[in-house]
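Support case: user asked for a sample of complex input and structure output to validate their parser. Sending the pair below.
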Amino acid sequence: MQHEQRILIVDDDHDFVEAISCFLELNGFTVFRAYNGAEGIRLAKMNQPDLILMDIMMNDRTEGFFTIHEIRRDASLKSVPIFVLSSFCTRLPDFEIPSSGGWLSHDMFFTKPVDTAQLLEKIRQRVGAAV
Amino acid sequence: MPSQLEAPTSAGGGTAERGTREPAAPETVLVIDDDSTMRLSCRKILAKMGLRAETFEDGASGLDGVAKTKPAMVIVDLKMPGISGMEVISRVREIDPQVVIVVITGYATIDTAVEAVRSGAYDFLPKPFSPDELRLIVNRGLERRRLALASQQHEIERTLLKRRFVTFISHQLRTPLATIYQYLDVLKHLEGEDEAMRVRRREWLDHCLARVQELQSLITDWLTLAQVEGGTLSRERTKVDLGCVITDILRAYEPTASAQGVSLEARLPDDCLLVGGDRNCLSVLFDNLITNAIKYNKPGGSVTVSGSQTRGEVVIAVADTGVGIPEKYRPFLFEEFFRVRDDSVKKTAGTGLGLHIAKRIVTEMGGTIHVASEVGVGSTFYVCLPAWREPAAVGRESDAARAANIDRR
């Protein structure tokens, strides 16, 4: 039997974290909450989540990117799916990240606010339905 | 972890300083002429003007010199053996289009001089010319270049600032909006009727209201800033009694402060805190400082506003017994959207514009603002403003009328 799917959310906006976490918990996921990059890295290593939701512009303007970079350096977290959630800009190309070959390439990008139904669908496609 | 705070000091700050200091370094003027007497006298005159003079005897070595010394101005003889003066002009402009080019020419070749000016030379100097004529044309040419460079620099800075401001403001507006949307979106799914669910729904609606409030403050601050920047608020110069302004603000915040266990105290002399300015602006200024002093205070703490006047200057000190500001943050305190984000500081609502607005207002009024702070003990903001001076040409009667007319709104 599959273990309960675990999701880590990293965002400095407590209210946003609260809303998304609650929604995911209602849908059967276990959610870990981190409010800055350092906390995100710590919780990722400790809990080995099945998927990570990452804000970009936190205390530092590109804190999320550095956090992803740091998380990816951990061998056990090399391939954990990371969804980027940001209101910094409306389209991924604004970040000037190549769509192929980059370290963000096979992951997903969402603009805040997110369509929760769509987010849930994408998460399920990645990690399977929560138990 | 990379720090947004430290990076700009070395990179951004440095560039800005170089930009403003540039005119202080001596500018280089390069002279290309095959006549050695001419080179020598030009060199002497230019050196006396405090400029760096470089002289070359032909076009080829002169162009090398242009590439190496990056001169502000090139003075070139049109009639030389080897590369012609006209050729030199076009090559110099290829190297650096900002170089001011002056051509030296004999009377007989005035047509060529006109042609040179058409092809990008700034002016021409017909031979023979006096030292004064040379000085005049060099000064004019360099001045024109400085203006061109300054306006170019200004334009670059303006564009950068504008882009940065738009990026930030859109992020600042979008974040609370996104959160409100997210709450409402998830609220649709919170269907249970049990007590826990009711409590949560209630809480979330309160959070939404707080975020709407945040948006409103941001828009208000943003508009205030636009008005201060546009000069519409701060150009007004009426006599304002800061004692009244501050007392009014303290009275208005009494309930908020006491709810947080913070006491407010005014140590203001009776009637010597008069400044010339716009009352609304001054109100915004001290409102921002006093709300900060309450917001970043500790239960049982106090806010003390004291004032004095010395040598034509009014000094107001807003002192709190709060968390204090770590030294590394102090240089950025008055920058737009800057917020101290430290684990020691509880997350406090705010737009990050308050102190920036305060600084803008003080600067517009010809005053200064600075802070003294000790972590864990408190901070004191000092505002120094020029004291009100009666206009010189008023009689005693209108003086009295004015005194009676002190703005006591």
